[in-house]
Amino acid sequence: MIPVILDTDIGTDIDDTWALAMLLNSPELQLEAVVTSHGDTRYRALLAAKVLAVAGREDVPVGEGAGDGRLAPDRRGQETWLDGYEPDAYGGVYRTDGARLMVDTIMSSPATVTVLCIGPASTTAQALAMAPEMATRARFVGMHGAVRSGYHGSPIPVPEYNVFIDVAAFRTVLAAPWPITLTPLDTCGIVRLEDDEYALVRDAETPLMRAVMANYRAWAGARGHPEIAERASTTLFDTVAVYLAFADALVEMEPIRLAVRDDGLTYEAEDGRLVNTALGWADLPAFRQALIHRLIGSG
Q1: Which of 262, 253, 261, 245 is nearest to 187 (CA)?
Q2: What CA–CA distances, in Å, run from 35 to 22, 48, 245, 266?
Q3: At what angle do helices 284-295 and 237-244 cross, to 10 degrees?
Q4: Do 273 and 257 contact (CB within 8 A), yes or no?
Q5: Beta strands at 138-143 and 180-183: parallel, antiparallel or unpaired
Q6: How many CB atoms neighbour CB 111 within 10 A?
Q7: How far apart are CA 33 and CA 130, in angstroms?
Q8: Other Cβ atoms closer than 10 A to 170
Q9: What is the pLDDT of residue 299?
């Protein structure tokens, strides 16, 4: 199995929760730690910890990462699901030094660790500042950027959230001497589950999927549209990054040189960093089927 550290901003958009469930049900991946990034990283870490507890995975250490502790009320849609959950309720290791947890996990691993980043790269960048040598013992797989397409399949690339919220952190990632694989909006921005496909996951009776749906309903309700959780998923950006941590046959990969403007727009440049990038789909329906299979697996 591939050892993985998840760096996530779970708790703002709901897709991180779906991605965590997919990761936990992917037998190719061994989750070694979860760290959180940006804003109220305690809220985010508690969400991850409670999901792990529901899944029976309290063997996974959780760490609060780089953030200023602030998050607007309308960006905390899953807080009601936490229902007062606190760090001492978690049966595993819970740390407040997420970047150090990342460094310790990578440097003590006998195998190359995949840093799977599905949020702003703030904590990963902080870890690199602490121990630049960790990049020689890891690889980076992320959901970042927009190269030739924007949100929802738009032909116009725009600054993508995970990049523009902390441009300096993403530049730090690009500068590190590790292999980088990305899913930009070109591929991850069009992944949704609808109709009968969505019904399979919505109605699944595993503890993990019941927790995912409870989170989704809380999130949708907080946004004032509880009905959306019954009809279809939102865009499941981060699930594509989870897939790229262990396979790439269903996407069209292309090595490109990537640079970042100050406003967070990623673009191809001759002097950019060489990045292995998923720029198109070879078989999107097959990916959706694989995603469903993993989501409704045991957990």
Answers
A1: 253
A2: 17, 9, 17, 25
A3: 90
A4: yes
A5: parallel
A6: 11
A7: 18
A8: 27
A9: 41
pLDDT tens profile 56-110: 999 999 999 999 999 888 889 999 999 999 999 999 999 999 999 999 999 999 9
Place of tokens 């991946």: 29
- What was the pLDDT predicted at 213? 98
Q: Provide CB contacts within 8 A for 278, sequence distance 6+.
A: 181, 182, 183, 184, 186, 187, 188, 240, 244, 248, 251, 252, 253
Tokens at residue 41, please?
A: 């990283």
CA distance 261 to 275: 16
Nearest 5°: the CA angle 261, 253, 260 is 5
Q: Residue 101, by phi and psi: left (phi above 0), alpha (psi -120 to 50) or beta?
A: alpha
For residue 249, the domain's CATH number is: 3.90.245.10
Alpha helices (H) in 83-204, listed in sequence order: 98-108, 122-130, 161-164, 167-175, 185-188, 195-202
| Number of separate domains in the chain | 1
Give the Cα separation of 266 and 17 in Å (integer). 25
Q: What's the whole-number average pLDDT of the chain?
A: 97
Domain hosting 17: range is: 2-295
Q: What is the mean pLDDT of residues 16-21?
A: 98
